[in-house]
Amino acid sequence: MTRIGVVMIRGLLALACLIGPLRPATAESAVPVPLHENVSCTTDRLHYCHAGSGEPTLLFLHGWGGRAEFWNSQINFFSSHYRVYTVDLPGHARSGYDGGTPTIKGLAEALAGFLDAQELSHVILIGHDMGGFVGLALTQTDAGRARIRGLVAIESLVNWVAESVATTDPDMS
Asked: pTM of the predicted model, to two decimals?
């Protein structure tokens, strides 16, 4: 892959575009939105949920300390038109991590194996907070170069990182 689209969307506008109007936080909002019946979840090395079919594939990556359930509304909404995956990043929630101290690069390499194992292609990554950084690092792996077509970073500083990568990596320009 010679080009990877890096899109920077910030704050509440990004969340509103993904699923609709935001609701004020309440005690009930701490409980994840229930998943539709057509969503399948499994825990092998990584816990992940998936639903839908078609291309592109949307892969949602949560931020630091998050979990796949962060994206339940999105998997319910987008799975009627796309193949959608949400994952617990390595070392988060129900996903183990045996790579020593977790780093952004280590998390990205684990997800590269996930892309290969699931045979995902034409992937659009949607990463919140640290998930945006993991997504950007994933685009630099062999699996990422072959399979990822775009990156949406929400509440990340990925635009600054992407600009510095684009000036040093000819594939990114």
From this structure: 0.74
